[in-house]
Each structure stands twice: as C-alpha cells, then as structure tokens.
Amino acid sequence: MARKDKLSGNEAVAIAMKQIDPDVVAAFPITPSTEIPQYFSKFVADGEVHTEFVPVESEHSAMSACIGAEAAGARTMTATSANGLALMWEMLYIAASCRLPIALAAVNRALSGPINIHNDHSDTMGARDSGWIQIYCETNQEAYDTMIQAFPIAEHKDVRLPIMVCFDGFITSHSVENIVLLEDEKVKEFVGEYRPESYLLDKDNPVSVGPLDLPPFYFEHKRQQAQAMVNAKQVILETAKRFEELTGRKYGLFEEYRMDDAEVAVVIINSTAGTAKAVVDELREKGVKAGLVKIRVFRPFPFEELGKALAGLKAVAVMDKADSFSAAGGPLFAEVRSAMFDHARDTKAVNYIYGLGGRDVRTDDIMKVYEDLLEIAKTGKVKSTVNYLGVRE
Amino acid sequence: MAYNLKATTEKPERLTGGHRMCAGCGAPIVVRTVLRALKPEDHAVIGSATGCLEVSTCLYPYTAWKDSFIHSAFENAGATVSGAEAAYNALKRAGKIDHTTKFIAFGGDGGTYDIGLQSLSGAMERGHDMVYVCYDNEAYMNTGIQRSSSTPKYADTTTSPAGKAVPGKPQFKKDLTQIMVAHNLPYVAQSAPFKNFKDLYEKAEKAIYTPGPAFLNVFTPCPRGWRYNTPDLFDIVQLAIDTCIWPLYEVINGEYKLSYKPKQKLPVEAYLKSQGRFRHLFAKENMHMIEELQQEVDRRWNHLLKLCGETE
C-alpha cells in the first residue's frame, strides 16, 4: 500500500533517495538544499541504506567525487543550490561529456550576487547548456516522483546523461504538503539495478576515462552527446508511462492546464505554476479563455511539441524566474519564442521576468499578466515585449 | 624480501611505452616506479590531474595505462579518486565485487601545491584508502613553465622571468610535505628517483599498502623547464639530495625518519649550476642570492634533522 504522509520537498526527495539506496552520495551543505544530505546522512548513520556518504569540502569536490564514483561503477547522487551549483560548473560539463548518469537534486535559489538565499531559477538556468537533463517540479509530489524516475532515464543505454531534478527553494523544499509515497520494494523494482557497461572497478576490463580529445575526435563525441539528449525525450516519456502504470500519476514533457480552447496562455516553470493555475481558474469562472503551460522537461527542450501546443493562441506570456542579461528577455522566453516560430508564428509572445531573489509573486501579479495578454489579444499590438513583474523601477 | 631492482623491473609494466612524455622527463620514471610497488595481482584505479602526465599518456583513442585510469580536471584529482574509492567500498559492501583495487592519484605541483590543494586536503582528511603522489617539477610545465608555489626562489620561469629589476621568482618554495604531515596521516614521505630506485619503490609500497590516506612528494626534474641536457636527469636528482635541497624522509603516524643523509653535504652552487633556470644567479652582482639560498636550505635541513631526532 502506498503511504500517505505530510512532508517537505527536501524530506520527500531524501526519502526517494533512501528508497533508491544509491551506492555513493557526495554532498556539501548549502541553503536551501542542505536538508537533503542532512536527512540522508541520518539514513546512513542508522544503517537504512548501504550508501557510502562522502562529506566533501566543497561542491566542486562533490561533483568531482560523484564523477569518480559514477565512473567507477557506482550509482551516485548529490544535491545543491545556487553558488554550490555554480562551483560545480566545470565538473557539470565533464560529468555530461563522460556520459555519467549522476542524479542531482537542484533546489533552486538565486545565484549571487548580491548574495540571497531565496528562490529563483538563475542557478539551474545558468547550467542549461551543461549537457544535463533538467526536469522541473511544481510540487513536493512531483519532486519525489521525478527523483524516482531519474535513474531509469539517466542510465538508459540510449541516454547515459546526468540528470537534475529541479524544484523551488523554500517554496517547495521547505513547505510541507500532503504526499503519497511508494513502497520501498516498488521503488526498487521500478529503478532496477545499475549495470554499467564499462567502469573503472571492472578489473578484467580496465578502462581509461577522460582522455585528452583533440580535433580528430572531439566533435564526434560532442555529436554523440547531443544525440543522447535527443534520445532522452523518448526515454523520459516511456519512463513517465511506466510510472503512471505504477502510480496513476501522469507526467509528460510539459503540463497543459485548461488549454483546450484557450486564447491566451502563460508558459511557466516550477511552483509559481500553482499560483498561476488559481488565476486561470478565476478567469475561467468569468468566461475568459485562459490557459497555462507548465514546462516540466527543459533539457531536452520540447521544441516541436511546445510549438504545436501554443499554435492558434492569440497571445502567450513566457514567465522567467531568471534573467539572462541578454537585453532580449529571459532564457525560457528565448527558447519558447524560438519554438513558436515554426508552429505558432501568428501568436504574439511577451516575456515577464518575475520573482528574482525570492520576490513574492501573488495571484494579483499573475492576473496583471493575463490582463496584458487579453489586451494584446484584443488589439493585436504588443506594447512591451520584455517586462519585469513586481519590481520597483 | 630485500629490494632488488632487477626483480622489480621484471614485473609487468603498468604504464606502457609509447606515451608522449619528453625524453629526460622524471615523471614517467616516478610513475613506473610507484606502480611497480603494486602487487601484480592487485588491480588499480589511477587518477591524474590535468597536466603533462595526463595529456601525454591518455590521448584519445590511445591510453598508456594498463590499469583503470581517470582524469576529470586540473584541481580535483584528490576528490575524483576519493569518489572512486567510495564506490569501491559501497560495491564491496553490496557484494558486487570481490577483488582488491588500490587507488593512486598523480598530480604535478601545479595540480597539488596550488589549484588542487583543497581537494587533496579534503580527500586526505576524510581518510580515503588512497595514495596521492605529487610529481613535483616545480612549475606549471604543461602550459609552458609558469611559476607555482613550488618553484624555488630566484628560478627563472615564464611568469617569474629573471629580469633587470626582478631576479626570478621572489618567494621561497612552499613546504607541501609539512602541510600534509599536519593532516596526521598514517604515511607521508618525500622521495626522489635515484640510483636503484629503492627509496621511491619502498616508500610507494608503504604508501599503497598502509591502510588509509598516504601522501608522497616526489622530486621530478623537467628538462624543458629546468633547462638541462636530458642525460643529466639522474645527476641532478643526486645533487638535489646531496645538497639537501630535497631531503628524503618519511613520517609514519607522526614519527619522522630521515631516509638519507649525504656523507658530504654539497654546497647549493653544485645543484644550481646544473640548470639553466638558475643561470642568472652566477652573474657577479647576483652571487649574494646563492648565499641566501644556501642559508635557507641549511635552516630547513637543520630543522628537519631535529624533527628526525638526528640532532638535539
């Protein structure tokens, strides 16, 4: 029987990790992800997992130790946030290029500076080109469910890429919600045993990992890495299907909320989707054809599918909880708008950068976005493409 | 069994020939000597920091390493190998492997004294059963002879050039071995490849087979950076130990033991003269610098003698 509980996002993810029982966890504390290695080391101390816990002296070493462990043939996990992820930067790329299916719980927090411990997406958005699969989660349940799906995706022979499970710092990581947990044995069965093809500890087949790779081969290896990310999409969907059969909970590349006959929509990531859904409901009660698309899988980016989902709408607002300082909008906007070019070219697209450094975003803020969209839908004119929501200026 | 060079060299090579290290380079000699200390039946996971050793021995699609080998970046050989060692413990506990694997990390002085110091310190402090070997060639050789914290005072490098106003590197060499001793490791040693390699072989054997973390700092000449004729490699090593510029000693569970005391301690000039990087010191106006180097060598040597209980 699945177990109902009330848990914070961090605790739910730590429990998922316990149920997965990885071989190695290497981690370093940073708010708001600290609780994950904290809970997990208690599982280690109490003998509830067989894991070797490596309490490293920095996040750079955390990812380096994860690389050493995963290359050695161990199923390996870590957790971090913000500057911790930034300190891992160099190693994120190396983990991906070595095709090591490490899983990382990325508890989203604003990247310094100025230093700030609260939520936005500047940390993982900055790592978007590091070659990691990135799946974003709105709720504690999604974070738990996605962590359980992480290894079947990452370790799949057509993929072999590291994976980040991203959820909002404090809003999701520390808020307690009702959650349904799977039985340990069902998780074990779903995740399966890790059987890498070649690994350092295979005495009979020694392998060299991380060679110098010059122009004769580097590009081919990068092409293979790019293909692995293409392949990941199908594997993510198959894994979600298998998870649905187990739990009844359905996941896709993105979630379409009241999109069937929608004329205007918001595209959004993570916990603020919950706030925005409440606004959609309110508008729908008034007869307004409002909808929402919540991006779940950001890497690989659901280019084709998203473009089609937004086709026929009058106006779309892409909401970025990170700025890319490109002077042309946030990172999600650039990609969503590009995806719309083939299939939704007639749909007006605008960008709202919101909630940086944990600035609270309420339903009335989101309502303002829908009001702007309705105005664009009515007039066919965009007054301002890139906008900042809820900031004094 | 008493050490016998011939017998040890009859063991199968674990770093094959055909790699691209320079003629007259000390590093592959150090690596091969260290690896000879492995029991032939034991498997090894060998890590390397980015550097000459890594780029010259593992160039896709080739590898010179007979054992499993991993390179990930410059500053993290300690952490990377510590992760592999953690994997070994977990997989062994889970009954997935039953063989013995030993863990050895190699780094140059740049990857060890400087950019990799934190990662090394962390790995040693956590107590992983591994050996970290620094092949100390006293500068960033792979990038073209830039000074490191291991470069000796007044050495001419491309970022501490001997000029009219500044006569080479202004600072003395960092004493990394002492920093590692302060970690209270079961085994720390300073060694060098010389004569029949007994010193390095036996220290490597102790380091590899002492349970827990161990650190070896090995003097490793570089013909390009130090500017010597390649056949002079072993003469230079001998001069370094006979001038006490590079003393040989080990620290076992905190107890110091001197490995080599020259019968006649030579003046530092003999060593300095052997290499182009110190040539400017022999200009008339710079001779006082040699005196200054002599005093520092003497001070450090006398201190070491005290630590080793050789003097009061």
What distinguishing features does this structure have?
heterodimer; A: 393 residues; alpha/beta; Rossmann fold; 2 domains; 7-stranded mixed β-sheet; 6-stranded mixed β-sheet; 20% strand; B: 312 residues; 8-stranded mixed β-sheet; 12 helices; 36% helix; globular
Brief overview:
The complex is a heterodimer of chains A (393) and B (312). Chain A is an alpha/beta fold and 393 residues long.
Structure description:
- The complex is a heterodimer of chains A (about 400) and B (about 300).
- Chain A is about 40% helix and about 20% strand.
- Chain A contains 12 helices and 16 strands.
- Chain A has helices spanning about 10-20, 35-45, 60-70, 80-95, 120-125, 140-155, 185-190, 220-245, 270-285, 305-310, 330-345, 365-380, and strands spanning about 5-10, 25, 50-55, 75-80, 105-110, 135, 165-170, 175-180, 210, 255, 265-270, 290-295, 295-300, 315-320, 350-355, 385-390.
- Chain A has a 7-stranded mixed beta sheet with strand order 3-2-4-5-7-6-13, sandwiched between helices. A 6-stranded mixed beta sheet of chain A has the order 10-12-11-14-15-16, with helices on both faces.
- In chain A, helix 6 packs across helix 8 (about 220-245) and helix 9 (about 270-285) packs across helix 12 (about 365-380).
- The model of chain A has no long low-confidence stretch (mean pLDDT about 100).
- With about 300 residues, chain B is of the alpha/beta class.
- Chain B has one domain (about 5-305): Rossmann fold (3-Layer(aba) Sandwich).
- Chain B is about 35% helix and about 15% strand.
- Chain B has helices spanning about 5-10, 25-35, 50-55, 75-95, 110-115, 115-125, 175-180, 200-210, 225, 235-240, 270, 285-305, and strands at about 45-50, 70, 100-110, 130-135, 185-190, 215-220, 250, 255-260.
- Chain B has an 8-stranded mixed beta sheet with strand order 2-1-3-4-6-5-7-8, sandwiched between helices.
- In chain B, helix 2 (about 25-35) packs across helix 8 and helix 4 (about 75-95) runs parallel beside helix 6.
- The longest helix of chain B has 21 residues, at about 285-305.
- Chains A and B meet through strand 3, helix 3, helix 4 and strand 9 of A and strand 1, strand 2, helix 4 and helix 6 of B.
